[in-house]
Each structure stands twice: as structure tokens, then as C-alpha cells.
Amino acid sequence: MERDAILLAVGLNEKDIFNLTKNEALTTKFLRTITEVNIPLENKSSEFNYSCGPLILKLIQSIPDNLADNRLIIAKYIAQGKLKTGVQVEEAIKYAKKIGTTPLPIQDFEVECGVGADVNEEKVTELVNGQISSNKLSYYTIGKANVGKLVGTLRNEIKLLKFADGNIIKQVVEKAFQALSEELKDTPVEEAPKKVEKVAVVKTATTTEKVATQPQKKTYNFDARFLETAVNPPELLEQHKNQTGGKIMTRFPPEPNGFLHIGHAKAMNLSFGYAMSEGGCTYLRYDDTNPEKEEKIYFDSIREMMEWMGFKPFKITYTSDYMDQMYDFAVQLIKEGKAYVDFSSKKEIHDQRENKIESKYRNTTPEENLKRFEQMKMGIYDEGAAVLRVKIDMSSDNYNMRDFVAYRIKYVAHPHQGNKWCIYPTYDFSHCIVDSLENITHSLCTLEFENRRDSYYWLLATLKLYRPHVYEFSRLNITTALLSKRKVLKLVKEKIIRSWDDPRVLTLAGLRRRGYTPEGIKSFCDDIGVTRVENLIPIERLEQSLRTDLDERVNRVFAVLEPLKVVLTNYDANKVEHVEAKNHPKLAERGSRQLPLSRVLYIESSDFREVDSEDYYGLAPNKSVGLRYAPCNIHCEKVIKDENGKIVELHCTADFDKKEKPKTYIHWLSQSAPGVDPMKAEVRLYEKLFTCDDLDEVGDEWLNYINPNSEIIKPNAFVDPYFQDAKNRAVYEKYQFERVGFFVVDQDTTNDQLVFNRSVTLKVDNKFKSK
Ligand code: ATP
Ligand code: MG
């Protein structure tokens, strides 16, 4: 076939062909790809998509040659009509770039690009209704303000929707919103109970604390994929009930290889929250079977942050506490011919499992396996030389059922067990056994474990152990934020952030330092709800929850971040008067404080402009502004500059008659006596740490998306005399700096140096607002 005939046959139009053939190299590459995908051009086959040309062209223009193997796989998917739309191909490209040169993991790849995902009207309805029902009130509030925004929010939150037709999404959301309005029409949106707990406000020294009163009961739905192996025989159920007294038992099982983050808060809120609402118990279980990554400081900080969140475990346990029992179970499996020692290498085992090939060690006799396992335990083999594998089903469609590894050798001191063991069980082996031994009724975990249900129940059924109910829910992902311990560790090591508790990362320690409260975090977790739909929550929603939480909780004070000196030329040089400022404009019971006012005061440099304009309400030459709480307005008479032309001082007159009504009232701080400036402070302004919304999508390139302005330091700020009182400067005390934002006292504060972190601005910053 001639070149142009081939190009036409795969759906390029004349204009495409004209443009393409101007680039000889690209044309050659395109034609080669068309040959390689084996699309029969002469005798057309219904198994191919003959309009695939434009998508294949898009693909080869976007994926570099070093990824040619994966590029070809994607091209085949396009030619075979399995990737049909531009969005799917874009997702495929993103995924391939993320995976790099390693072979595409086909199953994940297909999920990511929506292969076979027929997101028709029915499916869209199911997804939308499912998400809305996770928190009806919140979605109703969004939709009531603007239905278009509700469409956008849901599109953002439900990943699969990107493969659906935009018009269908719009129609379905509008219909769902109508139904929701009907259902909630009598619920007043503002006053509706948002939180699980009813809160009462009580006052402490400086910050107001919200204290839980009667907890309200929430409904939970833990339906998950049914498996016959999950059904408990009556005698086991009986025994379990005798041991628990019929109580609900959950567990929170962090691996002590890093600090807890907001995703863990979601998991804790669910496991502790559910057990608490049922009068049950929750274990904190350190899942500590990877000694090389685990450290004491992680154990300690997990406990500290869990306690800070207000979650009280019924018991603290360690997976490694059960090492003797697990060893006995392994021996039992070997004796029953259901586990074997495998000397294949890690890669060989991976390939065997990938390609459903049995290991040559699979049929070793139990006697021999017992001996070898004992030798593994005695330290006869090198690390990596031998593993114990369970013998399930190498032909299973479920990867995890293909003889997962149960034990591996590690010659590393264990932070809890010392040098007692050199073989350690894997997650797949230990998790279900310990859940069962602890009589967990509801084992709640994230969705990446869904495909492990089968092996979880296989092992318990084989060992004739009690089987907990497993329910998987979606992981929390937040735009512009990282929730991976490994990646946060990298940021710390590369000194991109100050430490694990840097106010820019969403570790719980970081959130505390940023000014979040446990109640605020829990209320955010309740607000986003628990679903099985993968979603990405806009960080603005978290920030909004912080504003809402802090608004009533904290007092308001003055701070001038970039001071500009103002001399009141008509004010007596020795006079100091005191003006009363309210600590909270709406809550009179918070009282007030006295602010000195004298001849010299400081205003925010951004509240002055040398060149005035109509839409500008601040101070300018020959213009007036009001001073919040003060008995006078100020009128700018003269601008004083240094030799470089920088404005250093303003000369103003104080107008006590307030003849002119100013358009705006600004914040200010004045010298408390001639020559005595206000208190100084360092103020750290925080912005999003990354400039890209979905960090998962950029794969290994994530470090290229650091926001260089994520921390801006104002070293010479002046703050309110309120901070002269030491208790008001205590670490984690929170404030609103009037007109500026919410701030919290940082732990770097010393007797000589006050340090504040900005928790959040007063309004959403459009510059960073996600689309
Ligand atoms: P990371 O990927 O951040 O290292 P992890 O999944 O390895 O997290 P674990 O310490 O094993 O973290 O997790 C403890 C519990 O918290 C698990 O039940 C896990 O499913 C849950 N969890 C972890 N991350 C999230 C998240 N982003 N959203 C919800 N739950 C989470
Ligand atoms: Mg983990």
C-alpha cells in the first residue's frame, strides 16, 4: 500500500496527513508503529479500530523513545479499540511516563486508563449517588450554592468520571441534586449538624476548646465482596463471641516506618469512631515485621499523635508479639503440605507468580521443608537465599493466591524483639492471623488490599481460625499534597522541608504545627466520609475546615507583618493613650485588651500606595484611612524616602473629629512609650508545597513540582501587646491576626524570639485555587 493510503486507512484526514508528512522522522515512526501493531489494512477485521490513527499519532508524539516497549503496548491497545478516547490515551501516556522503563503492570494500567470501563449513564449514576450518599449534607450545601460547582466537585473526586461523557455527568448530577434537595429541603444548611459529635464551647485561659458532649450515632455500611471462605463455622463464632462478650473490636495497624499523616487520621477516625459508637474497643497494633525500616522514634510518635487526636486504644500490641504463634502456624502448614521453602531468587519468584509457573521447590516433601524452615530460623541461609511460600493455587487469576511469600530472612535487629528472630512473616501471612488472634470483628483497611481478601480468608480457613469481617475503603488523597511516608522522608532528607513536622506537610505533627486541632481534623474526616470510590480531595476543602474550626475558637489580635512607620505630626510626642480592642467581634465574653496609641505607629506597608487609584481604599498621599478601634483617622501628608528612593516613613495627621468617613479601617500597632517599639516576631507564611494537583500522576518527577515560595519568612513583624503575657505565647496557641489570617505560635519560639506560622489565609487564595 502507498504511504498516503495507509495513513488514510487508519483514519487520518488529509489535513493530518499534510501536517504529519512535513515531518519525515515522525512519519517514519508512525508508519513503523502501524506495522508493529499488526492492524490488517487490506482485509479489515472487526477486532480493530480503523480510526485509531490520530490517537496513535498523539501517543508517539508524547512518549519518548526510551519507553518504546511500553509505547508499543499502548499503541496496540489503541489499535484494538481498547483505548478509545483522547482522555484514555492521555491517562495511558501519564501512566507510562510514571512507570518508566519497567514493563507495564497490565492490570493497574487497564484500571488507570479505564480499559473496559464502560462509564455509561447507569455507571455514572451509581458513582455519583454513591459519593453523594457518603455525605449528603455537604454535597447539598455545595449544590445549593451552585450546581455547576457540585458537578465540578464530583468530577474532581471520582476518578472514573473522567472516562464518562460530560453531558451525561451534568444530567446525572443535576438529577441527583434534585432528589437531594427534595430529601433535605427542610434542613437548614448553616445550622445543620455537620459533626459526629455535638460540641459545646468552654473557655480556657486563651484559646477556646470545644468539648464533646453526647456523641451522635452514625450509620456505617461495611458491605464488601463475599467469599465462602470468609464464613465462620458456628463453633468458631461461638468461641469468638465468648472471648469478646459480643463487643465490636477494631484495630489501627500502622507500620512504624514513618510519622502518621492525615490519611491515617481518616483510618483512625473510622476504626476508633466505629468501635466507640458501638461501645466496642480498638487496638493500636504496631505492624512491625519489616525491622530494617522501623525505628523507635516512629513507634513513639505514632502513639503521641494518636493520643493527641484523642483516640484511646484499648490495648497497644505489636504484630511481632505473636511471632511464636505465627511460627507454629507456619510449621502446621508445612506439615499439612501447604507451605514450602523456596530457594528461587526474588526475581524468579516474581516471574513465576506473574506467569503462573510453579516453582521447582513446590513439591518438596513436608519433612524436607520442615528441616529447611528450621534452618532458615537458625540462620543457616543468607538473606534472600530462601523464603517460605504458602501453597495455594498457581493458576489462580488472583495474583495473591499464587503462593505468596510467608516468611523471609532478615539479619537486622528488631526494634521490639532485638535479635531473637532472623525470619519475619510478611504482611500477607501475619495480618490475617493477628486480626484473628485479637478477635477483631471489623478489619478496616484501604482499597489496595481488596485483592488480598482471597488469600486473607484462605489462610484463616486453612488454619481453621476465626475470620474477621474485612472491609476496604478508599485512601485519602489530597491535591498538592503527599501522603506517602517514603516521599515525605525524602523531602526531609533533601532538606526541602524543615522536618517531619514541617507545617507544610500533612503529617499529623505537621498539621498540629500548622494550627490544626484534633477536632478540626476529625470533622474534616467526617465531612469527606468513607466510600469505596477513589477520589482526590481539593486541599481547599481541608483549609476551609480549618477556617471554620478556628473562627470562633481563637481570639483576634493585631500583627503588622511588614511594618511601615507612621509619625502623627499633630500628636503630642509624650502622650500615650490606650484604646480598647475586642478579642472577638462576635463573642463579647472573650473580653478586650488595651492597645497603646502614641505619636509613632506602624501600619502594613501593603496598606499604603504612593499612586492612588479609584478602586484602592487604603492609605495614599492626601488620603485618609481609619485605624481599627482607635478614636482617630489618619491623613497622609508627606512621604519620606531614603537615598535609594525606598519609602521609610509617612507623616500623617490624626483626625480626631473624623470629619471624613474613611473607606477602610486598617490594623496598626503603636509605640508604647516614646522610642519603645511594639513586640517583634518572626512570621512564617505558608503556601502549598507543590504546584501540581495530583502528585500521583507525575510519577517520579514529583520533586520537580516543589513550590519555591511555599515558605516566606517575615523576620521583622510587630505583634500585639497581648503577647507580653507568657501564657498567650505558649506553643500551639492560635489567633486570628485581624485582616491577615490565622496564625499559631510555633515551637521555635524562645524567650527572646516569638515565631508564628500562618495556618491559613482568611479567604481562599485564587492564585492557588485548584481548577
Ligand atoms: P504510606 O503509604 O503513607 O506509607 P501505609 O499504607 O504504608 O501508608 P500504614 O502504616 O501501613 O501506612 O497504614 C496504617 C493504616 O492506615 C492502614 O490501615 C492503612 O490502610 C491506613 N492508611 C494509610 N494511608 C491512608 C490514606 N491515605 N487514607 C486512608 N487510610 C490510610
Ligand atoms: Mg504500609
From TrEMBL:
* Molecular function, one GO term: ATP binding
Question: What is catalysed by this protein?
Answer: tRNA(Gln) + L-glutamine + ATP = L-glutaminyl-tRNA(Gln) + AMP + diphosphate
User: Please, one GO biological process term?
Assistant: glutaminyl-tRNA aminoacylation
Q: Does the keyword Lipoprotein apply?
A: no
Glutamyl/glutaminyl-tRNA synthetase class Ib catalytic domain ranges (all copies): 247-549
Glutaminyl-tRNA synthetase class Ib non-specific RNA-binding domain sequence ranges: 7-166
- Keyword field: Aminoacyl-tRNA synthetase, ATP-binding, Ligase, Nucleotide-binding, Protein biosynthesis
Q: What are the Glutamyl/glutaminyl-tRNA synthetase class Ib anti-codon binding domain coordinates in residue numbering?
A: 555-655
| Residues of the tRNA synthetases class I (E and Q) anti-codon binding domain | 666-746
Q: What family does this belong to?
A: Belongs to the class-I aminoacyl-tRNA synthetase family.
What is this protein's name? glutamine--tRNA ligase
Q: Which organism is it from?
A: Naegleria gruberi (Amoeba)
Q: Species lineage, top-down?
A: Eukaryota, Discoba, Heterolobosea, Tetramitia, Eutetramitia
